Amino acid sequence: MDKTQLTAALEAFDQQHILRHWDELDDAGKAQLAEQIQDIDLSLLSKLVADEDEKPDFAAIAKNSDPPPAVGADGSGVDWSTDDARGAGEQAIREGKLAAIVVAGGQGTRLGFDKPKGMFPVGPLSNRTLFQVFADRIAATSKRYDVTIPWYVMTSEATDAATRQYFEDNDYLGLSRDSVRIFKQGTMPAVDAESGKLLLASPGSLALSPDGHGGTVAALARSGSLDDMEKRGVQYLFYFQVDNPLIQLMDPTFIGHHLLADSELTSQVVRKRYPTERVGNVVQVGDRMQIIEYSDLPDEAAEATNDDGSLRLWAGSIAVHVFNVDFLRRASESAEALPFHRANKKVPYLDESGQMVKPNSPNAIKFEKFIFDLLPQARRGIVVEVVPADAFAPVKNAEGAENDTPSLARRAISDLHKRWLRQAGVSVADDATVEISPSFALDADQIRDSAADLGSIDGDQFLTRD
To answer: How many CB atoms lie within 10 A of CB 46?
Structure first.
């Protein structure tokens, strides 16, 4: 589209101001801005700005909510055993029906780290990065079940180039190049909070931001990744976010619960520590599950308890899911599958005089989708409870914060691995820091095979077979 065509398209929605620097741009700048404009659904954006899209009544939803169907941390709540689930999961992995996807669009800004968060070093002794920790587990699981597990890595505009270079420079972290597919999520433009006008980040670029982890669905389809899964015979996708090094990645028992429940979307949850904990609340409404964000859950519902004093709405999401691939395909074909959510943010922008403005308070609205909004559309959804000490230690905040810091995550890794060793009968000093590479053991059961050779561990030790 040339300037005349772009102007006509924009004038219909009173957004033509973003072309004010057009004549100053070179051909590359014009091409970039034109492409960005053509990628916007201006009609949808107009509805979002006007706040005309349909929004849930969370108070009514909470009032009619029940706890979700769940597998307890001890395996209770279902008709099959933990051994049954593990067997079913192992068989599916062995048959090549599983792939993994990590959502890795975030920078390490809150960590004081100027690279993609997946490149952050988190190994207590090895200093291995988050990406390496996950790759090690995928490699060990592939070896254990004599199969190649594909890994899909979703980046953002901010992390894509650096992530690709990192994988290239590090020989794809020991995985075959063919088994790793890196693709980029979509973007949405930010708008001025008062006027609803599009913002410019530079004369030739809109102020864009990632479209949220819910953008995974469209990005999988757009990048050809869903087609790639179909060619590989992948039927189930293990989804996780990049900031949790304690993730039980490709855990066969979790996968098996998904299969035996005949679920289309199964989520891991933790038991909330207190009513208003800042996690998504997984609830059951009628015959469907959904998540109510902590900020949308009325206090009355959050604080409701059972007769024994436990929280009625107890299940907190940790953003770990198993999806049926055909369910994702169905969702990708529906424009209405995932709604947009609004967030007030500070967004630098170019003012009318061409000067860059860096606001001190939120000035703009960003629009993003959340993957958990697929829950109500899934048939026979179920949640599986995990113990946080075994499965959840996110790295979100810089040292000095109260929670989710690198040092707390490293301690959680060491504590878990010491428990594994002790369960296998190995004596471990309380003050020792221990790290177990997945190449040495994926779980406590595998350690038992080597326990007699380990003796006692009196100091810091990194156990690996590399």
So the answer is: 15
Q: Greater confidence, 96 or 110?
A: 96
Separation between Cα atoms, residue 64 and residue 57, nearest integer Å = 11
C-alpha pair distances (Å), 113 with each of 42, 64, 126, 209, 395: 35, 43, 19, 19, 12
Q: Which residues have a Cβ under 8 Å from the Cβ of 128 and sit 6 or more positions away? A: 121, 122, 136
Q: Which two tokens stand for residue 223?
A: 């990048």
User: What is the distance in angstroms between the CA of the first residue and the CA of the last residue of the chain?
Assistant: 55
Distance CA 228, CA 230 (A): 5
Q: How far is CA 145 from the centre of its chain?
A: 25
pLDDT of residue 317 exceeding 70:
yes
Residue 208 in contact with residue 18, Cβ under 8 Å?
Answer: no
pLDDT at 335: 63
Work out the average pLDDT over 105-128. 95
**Strand 265-271 relative to strand 382-385: parallel, antiparallel, unpaired?**
parallel
Q: What is the pLDDT of residues 397-432, one digit of tens each?
A: 999 999 999 999 999 999 999 999 999 999 999 999
pLDDT of residue 250: 98
